[in-house]
Amino acid sequence: MLNSLSVDCSPSKEEQLELAAKDRGAQRVRKQVETAKRKGLGADTPGGVALVKRAIEPLSKVIQQSLDDAASGKAGRRHVAMKTLSQLPAELSAYFTTREVISAAIEQAGLTATAIKIGASLEEELRLAAFDKQAPALYGTIMRQLKERGAGAGHARRVFVYAANKDNANIELPSISKTEKMHIGVRLIEMLIEATSFVEIVTVRFGQKTKSIIRPTDHVMKWLEDRNLRAELMAPAYAPMVVPPVDWTGLSGGGYISDHLRPLPLVKACSKKQHRELLERADLSRVMEALNAIQRTPWKINRRVLEVMSSLWEQGSEIALPRREDQHIPPKPPGHVVHVDREVAWANVPPEAKKAWMAAARSTHENNAASRGKRLSLSQIIRTAEDLRDEGAIYFPHQLDFRGRAYAVPVGLNPQGSDHAKALLTFAEGKPITNARAAGWLAINGANLYGFDKADFDDRIGWVEERQELILRTADEPLADLWWTEADKPWCFLAWVFEYAAFLREGYGFVSSLPVSADGSCNGLQHFSAMLRDPVGGAAVNLLPGPLPADIYQRVADRVIEKLREEQEDWKARGWIDFGIDRKLTKRPVMVLPYGGTFKSCMDYVRAAVREKIKDGKENPFGDEIGEATTMLSRHVWSSISDVVVAARVAMDWLQKCARIATKHGVPISWTTPSGFPAFQSYMDLTQRRVKTRLQGSLVFLSVLEDSDTINGSKQALAISPNFVHSLDAAAMMETILMCIDNGITQFAMIHDSYGTVAADMEKLAACLRHAFVDMYRDNHVLQQFLDGLPEQVRAECPPVPPMGSLDIAQVIESDFFFA
């Protein structure tokens, strides 16, 4: 029997939360500041208002001063941004700029993309304002109708543009080019830096390329991490809900309940007209029923995990947490002198020493940038959890992407998030553990989270039973023994420790609410093996029953060793055998294969794995020839993958050929998944323009990408395999949920190829996901259906669908380790 929790909230409370999340409009900004000043909150001002006071007000003054200088004819640099900025209140421009830059700094986003976003926000305001000014009555009527229909923002813009372009409308909407948006955004970012020193622009290297990114300055970083400030503008625009989300019944309007937030589209970022038309014609009832079940699942904050995490975070601890302070840049090598002339400064430093220092300094800068992003992300997650810790139930609205995959709308804290985020969440409703099977699933989940997941189920349960006393002690004093921090997913494992200890103390009848999940075994290759009934690949990814989990990464490693032994006359082959070939060397190349892996990516992953092993103390037997030797090893890894997963490579090659033929005919690709969702792929050629602009007194060149009218054949071919297999794992998940609903399961923790529910229902979920997978592939020849859905002229040139193998797909039902 469900242990239902009453939820002491109402739609009015949720509406208030959504109004707070709206966070838009200069008038509201001014009201917040005025309220704060009137109350004399000072340093205790809630974070959102404090950020407004610290950033938006001074930025507004700089913008207004620049506008006044430009209007007066005062001497100084003229900027293309002034013409646009003069049409908007300075406070509004400042607000949009601050909001975008905060998000960009947290994510370490690129300067160009952020600048264009700012320009796009201003363009949207100008267009709506122009429409309202020229036709206020029509504007009010359209806006009211759009709200009644729950139209999304993209649809609303199209409606206004269509209405403005009617023959008798006589309405002109302003338009800003992508280049102009970039110029405007860069100028506003520059003004923000001038007004506040809030962020800084740094150049980081990604491989052979460099990129300008936005990041917080050191003092702002510390301010953002101050736990006494509720940084409201750091909170996600779309937050978890405290009432069940609105069900999806159409292409927009599901999720949030009020008019304060823009209506969500069912399929996010759906910008292609052809895809919208396909969605409008499709029967999405089954997909929406499954999606509604996910977002109707009530969650709550795991208070015990939050207490431990918050305590360590406040102490500045790095126990299972991101580094709290930046690493110091290594000192310059001997011989370096401080001098304005760079050549003079480095004149007495040997080239090798200079090169080594620059590599170390670059690595430190990049590590610091990554660490800052993790710190800010975790700070946001903890703040959100603390705000919701007393709620009886919280909910996460979900949307789909263009392949039909389901994603939680709130960022940061959500059931699909990081280890920290997932650990802070547990189901709001539990079910009692009444038998050994349910207790076994709870134990298996703990072993999996720790990383003991290659053994059979009995051994995993035994692993837990051997540690019962340690688990009980850790639940009482989690910081007395930090063994849990060595787990693959330490925070989720700690959440499990608390749950399992409570079960040990209470015994059968304990109401467990912790999500227990089973993960697919290299799920992309499972789908490829199933669609072509490949017995070799199917055995390698646990489509067939076996006494132990099949380890495809080790199988590929074993095949590599066989190849090396066949070439033992080559000293490099002998060197690799002595070095040791294991699953760590082959895991990444195998894992990414169904998602567009190439020989180049294989080489990159093999090199990274080799470097890691050498860093951990493995001797390099190749000396200066390590690069050439690694290339040789990569070729063996690549060919060994093909030996083990023959059908997957055949299917991928076939899909790529079809994609190239479709591109030759100038048509995008669409297909309907077994769940009824129409997926759509159309990657266009991009025209890259180098645009020069001034930033903080220096001339910089930024690249702006603009869509062309031509489909990009290479991107279409490269993307079709991952997009196709992602659409199938989405369909399998939806079919699993529907079967679970029919069998009384109501709580879902679903992440693409990881399915979870409470321990008491896990046995039923395990059965449902297997039957749903078998039914999907027994009833659908997905590659033939893909071919049949292509235009006739494309279909006529495509090669025949690859032949089926001898795998009996029904054996999946008996495979314990298919999802485990």
CATH superfamily of the largest domain: DNA-directed RNA polymerase, N-terminal domain
Major sheet = 3 strands, antiparallel
**CATH class (first level) name of the largest domain:** Mainly Alpha
CATH topology of the largest domain: T7 RNA polymerase, domain 1
Judged by helices, strands and strand pairing, the structural class is: mainly alpha
Shape: globular
Average pLDDT reading: 85
Helix content estimate: 40-55%
Strand content: 5-15%
Number of folding domains? 5
Low-confidence stretches: 1-9, 23-49, 227-236
Radius of gyration: 29 Å
Q: What is the count of β-strands?
A: 15
EC number: 2.7.7.6
Keywords: DNA-directed RNA polymerase, Nucleotidyltransferase, Transcription, Transferase
Catalytic activity: RNA(n) + a ribonucleoside 5'-triphosphate = RNA(n+1) + diphosphate
Protein name: DNA-directed RNA polymerase
